[in-house]
Amino acid sequence: MDVDLYEVNTFSNRPQGGNPLGVILLEEWLATRTLQLMAGQTLKPVTAFAVPRGTAWEIRCFTGLREIALNGSAVLATAAVIMDFVDRAQRRLTFVHPKGTAEVWRQEGRLHLDLPQWRLRLRDEAEPVLAALGVTQGEVWQGRDIVVVLENRQQVAALNPDFIRLAQLPAALVVVTAADQASRYVLRAFSPATGVCEDAATATAHCALAPFWAARLGGHHWQAEQLSPRRAEFTCELLGNRVVIKSEVLQVRHKLLPLPQEAAPVSSL
Question: Which terms in the GO cellular component ontology are assigned (predicted)?
Fold first, then answer.
């Protein structure tokens, strides 16, 4: 038996840009081990699995190594598949993930992802983080992720991290950022602990970065560029205690993925 695998790029309108993700829609949940095996077979940095539940969709995300928490790119990719291949009349979707909910809607040809804002605090120990990144100076902040602020775009682009040391830090994701120009910042994101040395496009990073740069520089609308090898572009808007992230989405192709023989349905998320 085969399942439908959709390969989708988020945060870019170029085939070789943005975040290349796998999306698989299921009728019922399969065992976690089966989902992990399937994620490894897709050969994508992250694979999203979604199951309809009433008016919402439950979603789980896996790298090739393990299940991960909320992945904004995967939520957007899944929304694009549902709106383009399941229900073309659908313009707004609710996703239930292990940490809460996320809303996605389509407006003026782009998908909008509504996420909470995350606050940061200065980290007591900066040296291990800076050493893992191969730099000697920078502000090190802590939230759900570790965030490092450097002086400029050039420093962020030139980073050559030690991924073994990064994987030993007490956060699954390390985000490095710098102001670039008015209403704009750049970033790179590393997650070797989950099997993704450098993430191509990291939507959830802006849950912390957009309010951080707004507090430091002012403004409510931000453009951001992720300086990964594939490059990615983000438009972020602060609304109350939320951040809305807008994306171009390019559905690359659809194919069939063999279902592991051990697959058996389970009841819930």
Answer: cytoplasm
d(CA 193, CA 76): 23
Spell out the residues 6+ positions from residue 8 whose beta carbon is closer than 8 angstroms to its own: 20, 21, 22, 23, 77, 80, 81, 249, 250, 251, 252
Quick check: helix, strand or coil at residue 7?
Answer: strand
Among 174, 173, 252, residue whose Cα is nearest residue 13: 252
CATH 3.10.310.10 intervals, the chain: 2-114+248-266, 121-239
Class of the 2-114+248-266 domain? alpha beta
DSSP string, 65-116: S-EES--HHHHHHHHHHIIIII-TT--EEEEEETTEEEEEEEETTEEEEEEE
Q: How many CA atoms lie within 13 A of 83 on its CB side?
A: 23
d(CA 173, CA 61): 15
Q: How many CA atoms lie within 13 A of 56 on its CB side?
A: 12
Express each pLDDT in 175-224 by its tens digit: 999 999 867 999 999 999 999 999 999 999 999 999 999 999 999 999 99
What would the CATH number be for the domain defined by 121-239?
Answer: 3.10.310.10
